Amino acid sequence: MFADLAVPFDEAAYARHYSPNWYRFYERLGLPKELWTDADEAWLRYYHEESPDKREGADEALAAVRAAGRALGLVTSGDRARVDSDLRRLGWASTFEVTICGGEVPQRKPHPEALLLAVERLAVSSRRTAYVGDTVEDVEMGRNAGALTIAVLGGFTPPAVLEQVAPDILLPSLIEFPALFGD
């Protein structure tokens, strides 16, 4: 995307400044506002060419939530068409009782609006909710909604950055997630 816009890019800066809130991300990287619309178009074009794999331990983590009799929702910055396609491809189309995607609420992460909507649709209290994510904005959104925050290393955010925002629980990977539910 940055090459398309003839803007210098560096992977370390990308990792340090990554945010699922693209405008926050563009701002952190110093991308001029007049390029944001073009950046969005290029980002979406490349995004639709990707087919992400499951993170190691994801199936087991989802199964642990289900086995514990807990409601399961998905709050993501991804657009609905892409998320639904990925969920079908990964075999998770009927896994989540509620899915809230980017663009379905006016406010972006870290604002809690999307998570609060999911909690409302699940008919649970945000105080009895855990939000699992791998970015600073995920932790901030969960905290802003009054949920327990669980951060998982191995995503786009460097470990030191996630540690700095002090999630309630920090896991090295999703493999450790089922242990939160005991035996």
Q: Quick one: CATH class of the largest domain?
A: Alpha Beta
Sheet with most strands: strand arrangement? 3-4-5
Helix percent band: 40-55%
CATH third-level topology of the largest domain: Rossmann fold
What is the rounded distance between the termini? 45 Å
What general outline do the C-alpha atoms trace? globular
Q: In the CATH classification, which architecture of the largest domain applies?
A: 3-Layer(aba) Sandwich
User: How are helices and strands ordered from N to C?
Assistant: HHHHEHEHEHEHE
CATH-wise, what's the superfamily of the largest domain? HAD superfamily/HAD-like
Taken together, the total number of domains comes to 2
How big a fraction of the residues is strand? 5-15%
Largest sheet: 3 strands, parallel
**C-alpha Rg, in Å?**
17 Å
Instruction: Indicate the structural class.
Output: mainly alpha
Q: How many strands in all?
A: 5
* Average residue pLDDT: 90
| Poorly predicted segments | none
Query: In DSSP terms, counting alpha (H) and pi (I) runs of 4 or more, how many helices?
Result: 8
